[in-house]
Amino acid sequence: MMREMGWHGALKKKSPRTTCADPGHDRAKDLVDRQFWAAEPNRLWVADFTYCRTRSGWAYTAFVIDVFARKIVGWKVSTQMTVSLVTAAIDNAIAARMRSGVTDLAGLIHHNDAGSQYTALAFTQQLIGAGIAASVGSVGDSYDNALAESVNSDYKNELVDNQPLFPGAAELSLATAEWVTFYNQERPHSYCDDMTPDQAEQFHYDHKRALIPEAALTN
Fold it and tell me: Which residues does the UniProt record annotate as the domain Integrase catalytic (predicted)?
């Protein structure tokens, strides 16, 4: 019937495979078990990266998300899906938190999939150096990293797939910076009772300060 009508089935475009486990890498245990909830910021971060087609070829964008308010705390765009891509994203996240006054990340869990970039020794050492505990989901199960996958989907739907191809990674990176600002500062999130991630974090800290006795603040 389709042939008679001149119809053709939609073909799925070939895309890079981003989660490729390396059996030679030691993997951390799954400390999250799909419980994407945190009582306050800097208790659980999730990370992943996704592919983006540009006129110059494939580019890859890595994100680090703080689970408490779904805030993107680190990101990086690159033309290669290497260890340096995910290391740069976590460096960006740590630096952003340090600029906001966070001096100790002890007790923070960083969760990601079992891709070889995240299980590489260089990335693991980066987490250890910052006092961050590593957590890795199982191979080939997107539900083990569902929150990060959801942010990737928002990014692709709201920025990448809704306009002509970007010329290259540099242009994609500039647009990503603007989108991350929009996502954190302007875009209401239902998980945050329709506050933005920035507003939700600020509300948390304001509420926390209000619970501290005045005498303790003056000492």
Answer: 37-205
Q: Which domains does the chain have, with CATH numbers?
A: 24-210 (3.30.420.10)
DSSP helix, strand, coil percent of the chain (3-state; round to 5): 40, 20, 40
Polymer length of the chain: 219
User: What confidence tens digit (pLDDT) does each residue in 193-203 have?
Assistant: 999 999 999 99
Nearest to 51 by CA among 21, 87, 88, 14: 14
Q: How far is CA 7 from CA 1, 3, 11, 114, 163, in A?
A: 9, 6, 12, 40, 26
Do residues 204 and 196 lie in contact, with contact meaning Cβ atoms separated by under 8 Å?
no
In the three-class reduction of DSSP (H, G, I as helix; E, B as strand; rest coil), residue 7 is classed as coil
Structure pTM?
A: 0.84
Q: Which helix (H) or strand (E) holds 47?
A: strand 44-54
Beta bridge partners, 47, equal 64
Q: Helices 121-129 and 83-99: crossing angle, nearest 10°?
A: 10
Under DSSP, is residue 63 helix (H, G, I), strand (E, B) or coil? Answer: strand
| CA-to-CA dists, residue 92 to 63, 128, 180, angstroms | 10, 16, 13
pLDDT digits (tens, 9 = 90+) for 18-27: 545 545 556 7
| Residues 136 and 27: beta-carbon distance below 8 Å | yes
Could you identify the residue written with the tokens 């408490």? 68
Cβ contact 59:80 at 8 Å: no
